[in-house]
Structures are given as C-alpha cells and as structure tokens.
Amino acid sequence: MWVRNIGQELHILRPILNAYRRISANAYEHNFHSALLAAIKPGDNVWDVGANVGFYTELFANVVGSEGKIIAFEPSPKAFGILRSLAAKRNNILLQNVALSDTDGLVDFFVNNQELSTTDGLMPASDQTDTIKVTVKRADTFIELASPSIIKIDVEGFELEVLNGMRQTLSLAGLRAIFMEIHFLALKKKGTPGAPITIAKILRDNGFRVSWTDPSHIFASRNS
Question: What CATH number was assigned to the domain covering residues 28-106+134-221?
C-alpha cells in the first residue's frame, strides 16, 4: 500500500499501472478475470454493475445459460446503446439504464463528447464533457427483479456509494461473491482516499472473506 501512496503523490501511479498492463499483456487483471468467471455457475443470477459496453455482460450470459440471468446496470447513453444491441440477441440479459448509488433520484452525469471516449461518468474526466441527468437507484431496489448470486462492480470511484445502497442485498443468503475494482485515483480526487478501508469493513461485517487478486481488484467471498 505504501508503494501505491508514493506513486499517487508523485503522479506516476497511472503511468506505472499502464506500463505494467502493456508489459504483462493483460496479466494485470488476469487473476481477477479468472476468479470472477470461475465463481459463476450455470443458472446463477449475476449483477454487472457498471457494465459499460458489455464485455463482461456477454461472458456472464454465456456461463449462466438459459436458466440464469444477467442484470446489467449502465448509466452512459453511449454505452447503453451498445448494451441494448447486445441484449437484443439474448434472452438472459436484463438492462437497467441507471447508476447504482446510496440514494434514489437524478444526478449530473458527464459525457465526453469525443466519439470513441470511454470516460463518461459521475465525475468529469476532461474539459471536453457535456452534462446530462441520469437516474440513480439503490441496489436494494432490484432484489425482486433477480436476487444476485454474484456481483461485479466497476463504477469509477463510487464503489462505497454502491455498497451503501445494497445493505439488504449484502445480507442475502444466496449472494456468494462480490468482485470489485477499486479506483484509488478517483477516490482520492473525490476526497475519500480512505474508502477502500471502509469498503473492506462493510464486506467483512457481512460475512465475506476479502482478498485482493491484484493491486486494484477485490474478491470477496463467503459460503452461501
């Protein structure tokens, strides 16, 4: 952790991580990716929180099969359009054009106006952004739609808000594992650099064993 902190202070953490990813040719997230797919079983309900354009959504749908269900949450209009095309070919993908958080309502969402950008989000990533309103909801709102067996979360610095909005969900007996990317730089930008400690505590308080598959990804599991 001290290496990460030094890297952040010197503004070299992101270049180091990017270089590491290039050098290792996708090995950086390999353990996370492998553990995530290995945890999913045919017939599972999987929540893909921050689905983006559906890379994991499609992989999950292949694993769970016709008896399972994928709930893909994505607020970005551009990404959601791609997700809609993907889901049209599947009977086991349900789409929700919302961001999960700790409240219900409308919030500002920053859309990068570059055609190929993937930096849309709840925090502006550049000066070239337009602001729209998107719907936010608590994860607990969706339990009756499909009670999750596995949850994957990638929300660009809003990990704690998502967890705080799924307190009921976390207590579900059938929830076996949560896989989460921790965006340390985004959390620091928000002024919440201590959020990862709180996130790990929430998970442990709900009976999960918390481990790290790499410097940025949590794997939390428990016996259902």
Answer: 3.40.50.150
What is the pTM for the complete model shown?
Answer: 0.84
Q: Where are the domains of the chain?
A: 28-106+134-221
The dihedral built from the CA positions of residue 97, 103, 105 and 106, taken in this order, carries a sign that is: negative
CB 121 within 8 A of CB 129: no
pLDDT in tens, 66-120: 999 999 999 998 899 999 999 998 999 999 999 999 999 998 888 876 654 455 6
Length of the chain: 224
Residues 6+ apart with CB under 8 A from 63: 37, 40, 41, 42, 44
Q: In Å, how far are 9, 13, 24, 64 from 3, measured between CA atoms?
A: 10, 9, 19, 39
Please work out, in degrees rounded to the nearest 5, the angle formed at the alpha carbon of residue 71 by the alpha carbons of 110 and 106.
Answer: 35
User: Does residue 118 or residue 37 have the better pLDDT?
Assistant: 37
CA atoms of 57 and 72, how far apart (whole Å): 7
Whole-angstrom CA distances from 157 to 40, 91, 122, 167 are 25, 31, 9, 19
